[in-house]
Amino acid sequence: MRLEPIAAPSLWRLAGLPAAALAATVLAGSLLALIAGADPLATLGLVVKGAVGSRFALLETLNRATPLIFTGLAVAVAFRARLWNIGAEAQLYLGAVATVAIGTAGLGLPAAVVLPMMAGGAVIAGALALLVPALLKTRMGVDEVVTTLLFNFIAILFVSYLIEGPMKDPMGMGWPKSERLPDPLRLPRMIEGVRLHWGFGLAVVLAVGVWIVQTRTTLGLAMRAVGENARAAAFAGIPVNRVIAQTALISGGLAALAGFSEVAGLKGALTRDLSPGFGYTGIIVAMLAALHPLGVVVAGIFVAGVFVGADSMSRAADVPSYIADIMLATALLTMVLALMLTRYRIRRD
Amino acid sequence: MEILEILLSASFWAAVVRIASPLIFATMGELICERAGVLNLGIEGIMVVGAFAGWMAVYTGTDLWTGVAVAAVAGMAFGALHGVLTVVFGLSQHVVGLGVTLFATSSTYFAYRLALPEVTSPPRIAPFEPLALPVLSDIPILGPALFAQTPLTYLAFGVVGVVAWVLYRTPLGLALRAAGENPAAVAAQGLSVTGLRMGAVIAGSGLMAVGGAFLTMSAFSSFFFEMVNGRGWICIALVVFGAWRPGKALLGALLFAAFDAFQIRLQQTAIGEGLPYQLFLMLPFALSILALVVMSRRASVPAALMMPWRKGER
Amino acid sequence: MAPATAAPVVLRLEGITKRFGTLTANDAVSLSLGAGEVVALLGENGAGKTTLMNILFGHYSADEGVVEVGGLPLPPGAPRAAIAAGVGMVHQHFTLAENLSVVDNILIGTEPLWRLRAGRGAARARIAALSRDFGLAVDPEAVVASLSVGERQRVEILKALYRDARILVLDEPTAVLTPQEAEALFATLRRMVAQGLSVIFISHKLHEVMALASRVVVLRQGRIAGEVAVADTTPAALAALMVGAAPAPAQIAPAPAGPARLRLRGVTTPNEGARPGLRGIDLTLAGGQITGLAGVSGNGQGAIAALISGLARPEAGSIEIDGREAGRGWSARAALDAGIARIPEDRHGTGSIADLSLTENAILERFTRPPFSRRGWLDRGAARRFAEGLIARHDVRCPGPDARIRLLSGGNMQKLILGRALSGDPGVILANQPVRGLDVGAIGFVHAELLAARARGAAILLISEDLDEIMGLADVIHVISAGRLSPGFARGTKTAAELGVWMAGGGFADAA
Questions:
Q1: Does B310 contact A at CB distance below 8 Å?
Q2: Per-residue pLDDT tens over the stretch C209-264
Q3: In 3D, which of C71, C70, C65, C75 has the Cα closest to residue C29?
Q4: Among candidates B205, B175, B177, which has minimal Cα distance to B29?
Q5: What is the CATH number of domain C9-243?
Q6: Do residues B179 and B193 touch, judged by C-beta distance below 8 A?
Q7: Scanning A26, A255, B142, C367, which has its CA 20 to 30 A from the CA of C307?
Q8: Residue B300 has what pLDDT?
Q9: At what angle do helices A323-341 and B93-115 cross, to 10 degrees?
């Protein structure tokens, strides 16, 4: 077997193969439902209904999509430059820590000043959190996959320490959680009466922003050049290490905004279960979007829908909600394969 | 003084060997994959699969050794999935590895929920009992530490010897190492790079799963979510620390386990009670990062690691 | 017209046809080889020689035709069967695992995989015997990374002999050797032939073919263009067969040295593994001249190219451009800003980014500057116009400026890289192996562009392993050997043999 590059892939390949990957995902879901002894069609129907079947469900999906769009963008930006940031989880938590620290400091300033400070603090925290592995990579040649993975565990333990120690809520009845943000420092709703906060709006705006940076700026071209072929980029005079560091700052900052948005928009306080793996799920979102920033918005909503729908389904039917994780893992693996096959043809020789 | 007491107690050294055992299995598994040129980030999920499959098999009535075999086969199945995607299709080893971890972990949790829908705390099985080797286990300190372990621990040390022998003394090992150094050299001799790498990934994944099974069948006696808790990632760091050599990786695993056993005991001393427990829990991860940094300058990494091999391309 | 050979035929290729998409790499090619015979397979790059040998060796399977070894057909696409039948191949790019020892490299795949113990002791003894019999000296326990190129080639030949090869195929074996090393190789091959082995020798160097082979098969555009006994032909006749018509040797008027544009003074660089660093070399590139750098690959050409490209800084010594010393900030960017054009050795890996478009590749060296950048924003219109201009001026055959550069042929890719490098009218041009692997047309184009730049007053450094190319184009020739640089020899003052002595390390003051 041999893989042969395709000069001009047909529309059938470009659209059909990713569609086949999604079909495989649905098939996997049906199989799992069968294994669980449920009717596949009914189960998938419940998932769809739970995701988008009502106004409440749809809003829930969009709320859940918000942190995923941020972490998905973080991963998409980093992977495009071939910086393997698997540490969005850590950056998210550190962003949340900064958000809460600034928001509960009692600065006595108007919300219009403090909210941007919280967001800015989160961005800085997350950016620095990824800068360390990025520098270890460029200066010492330490593989960033393992370091960012390991940093996730350290960051979560750090958060656990903070909310049981220095940042513990004195009114929390002993629960390990931080003080709540005062109400004026919560992100407002996008539309009055609709339970969707501005974190979602910010995520969409930033997706467009990232897309503009990638396609219309010299930094974007440099990031893509470094990702595709660092040796050739260096030869052409692009400062590869600096571009990787810049990418790390952007990626880490984006992931941290997921933490900011979850705390300021939704939860109001920092807890150990702030993120059920949003950082890792961001990888799926980014890969399903083929690393395209606008695609990340769509993929983020899709992934959130699967989670929200499966949660709702598992309350109604006897199928464990882990069906969502398996379907998404299937989607990830089949999509990566499908995207490769849009560009290569399998040949026997 | 307390520190000295810890270091001189037989229970400390026994704990070191016990903590190291699952790491040894999984590290050898990862080492085989990487020596053949494949980074297997599926390790974390494959350990979860092994932990669950072995335990579940025993829970449903098989004997312990059959349970170990079931764990290994389950791990090999996920290894085959990883291999098909990364070796046959040459997809990104990073993305596929993480995908396999996610797939393996969620499949396990799904299966657990299906198998045990109602339980609040997981059932226990009768795990491997320590097997004191006659005479040897009577040696002070060293005896109880090394020679009163469960059979799986002895197997772990045996595996290191087998892996080292195969890699350095047999034609198969030579072919595997060559596949990780320069696949073109292997293909030019008419050997199948794809076959060698697939075999390495599948066999390695089997070992990783046995490492996971050690947790449920020897260290503890039941299965918990999150019980692997980053051990897989640590094993990847251990392979680097061991400079891709079985003996050095074994030393790394023991050293790491010694730190881990030490911090657990230190927590219970006067020194430890003054510090937040999270600091101790961070130590293994911080230590792994430190090991990676310290070893980063060494150039012993297999030359073709993470390079997909496609016939006809150079 | 094929001369009958007295010896029994050991290998027969009959009507081999192989197509890649629309390209027919081999078109009904037939070839036979007698015991104890050396047949040269002659042809330009891209004539189909390597494809034919890959079919013989089972790396590809032919669309039509059969391969017979010793009268028995060989199953297609099965390298193991070819090895078992006694066919050995020494590839142009060695297939050795650098971090393994010589014995390990030779042993790969020779024993059943599932044996519990590799028989290294017996293997070592056999390797020693083969080395002795055929004059292939090499330390069996040495790690390949520590061996010179010539030694590595010996390991490749030992690999084939260890597998009892009776037919040895060598693909461009002298490309990486000094003339003296090549002589030693020929001596080894003659010994093998004397013992009844047969050799297929792939080359495009006429004098070697004349010296070694008894019969020549010429391939042109995938077809057999002719088959002659060496005794009945001349180099000129072979050249005519190869390219279709005898090429007129280029007459290049000598050019006087202009002002010095680039100077390396006492430059030293650290060793890189087995490759020696530079040992205090002085090199001056004069405007209006082509300076040729001859030498066997891996003797420091890479270090010089890296210095001039801005990818490395000297450990000691200095780089001067137009009289100004390049300081601590010497980098690829600084080199470009100093007006140095670079044509890299590896156009796929270094010169271009396969999955970026032609446009993006075209502006890669200057997109952070106006007119392509305006305060960090990319002017896509300006970029596109620039790329379209390059494509038109240099006749780059491509689907369009937005196509990925991966889709281009080597020649067209090189035209784009050349256009990119030369578009700023640079004062210094570094051309590192600029025509390797190109077809005749593209080679002519590249050489014409270099000569045009020379006429405009640029100082050009031409690095090549092809001595004929250097002797044809360069006004001044330096030879590099083990990190040392010979004095500059004016055009026509040294013969190939004399340069070969320098390539092998003779002539240097510290020659040891």
A1: yes
A2: 888 899 999 888 888 988 999 888 887 787 777 766 544 445 678 888 889 999 99
A3: C65
A4: B205
A5: 3.40.50.300
A6: yes
A7: C367
A8: 80
A9: 150
Mean per-residue pLDDT, A28-44:
93
Of C380, C414, C48, C359, the C-alpha closest to C202 is C48
Coil, strand or helix at C132: helix
Q: Give C164's contacts (C-beta < 8 A, 6+ positions apart).
A: C86
Whether C115 and B170 lie within 8 Å, measured CB to CB: yes
Using a CB-CB cut-off of 8 Å, the residues of chain C touching B169 are 116-118
* pLDDT tens column, A239-271: 999 999 999 999 999 999 999 999 999 999 999
Instruction: Chain A: list its partners (3+ Cβ pairs within 8 Å).
Output: B, C
Q: Is the ipTM of this complex over 0.90?
A: yes
Q: Which of B172, B182, B314 shows the shortest C-beta gap to C113?
A: B172
CA distance B290 to A151: 12
Find chains touching chain C: ≥3 CB pairs under 8 Å: A, B
Measure the CA–CA gap between A62 and A68, rounded to whole angstroms.
Answer: 10
Give the distance, in angstroms, between the CA of residue B257 and the centroid of all CA atoms in the same chain.
Answer: 13
State which residues of chain C have pLDDT below 70: 1-6, 21-22, 45-46, 243-251, 273-275, 510-512
When the pLDDT of each residue in chain B is averaged and rounded to a whole number, the result is 91
Cα–Cα distance measured from residue A149 to residue A83, given in angstroms and rounded to the nearest whole number: 13
End-to-end Cα, chain A, rounded Å: 6
- Cβ-Cβ contacts under 8 Å between A and C: the total is 76
Tokens of A163: 């909310």
Rounded to whole angstroms, the Cα distance separating C289 from C255 reads 6
Torsion of the alpha carbons at B179, B184, B186 and B191, rounded to the nearest 10:
110
| pLDDT 10s digits, A147-194 | 999 999 999 999 999 999 888 888 877 788 898 999 889 998 888 878
A175 shares contact with chain C (CB less than 8 Å): no
The structure tokens 């941007």 sit at A116
Q: Assign C139 to helix, strand or coil.
A: coil
Which backbone phi and psi does B49 adopt, to 5 degrees?
-60, -45
Q: What does the alpha-carbon distance between residue B211 and residue B206 come to, in Å, rounded to a whole number?
A: 9
C407 at A interface, C-beta within 8 A: yes
Residue B232's Cβ-side half-sphere holds a number of Cα atoms within 13 Å equal to 34
**B57 three-class SS:** helix
Strand order in the sheet with C279-286: C279-286, C260-268, C316-321, C324-325
**Strands in C396-445 per DSSP E:** 428-432
Where, residue-wise, is CATH 3.40.50.300 in chain C? 9-243, 248-339+426-512
What per-residue confidence (pLDDT) applies to B313?
A: 45
Give a yes or no: residue B126 inside a domain. no
Residues B146 and B136 sit within 8 Å (Cβ to Cβ):
yes
pLDDT value, residue C23 = 73
The whole-number pLDDT of residue C273 equals 64
A-B contacts (CB, under 8 Å): 125
Beta-carbon separation of A337 and B89 below 8 A: yes
Residue B168 within a domain: yes
CATH class belonging to C248-339+426-512 = alpha beta
| Helices marked H in chain A | 11-35, 40-52, 55-80, 88-103, 111-135, 144-164, 198-216, 218-228, 230-235, 240-261, 278-288, 293-316, 323-341
pTM (predicted TM-score): 0.90
Cβ contact, residue pair A3, B88, below 8 Å: no
- Contact between chains at A5 and C407 (C-beta distance less than 8 A): yes
| B181·C95 Cβ contact <8 A | no
Where in the sequence is the domain holding B73, given as residue range(s)? 21-115+151-295
**How many domains in chain B?**
1
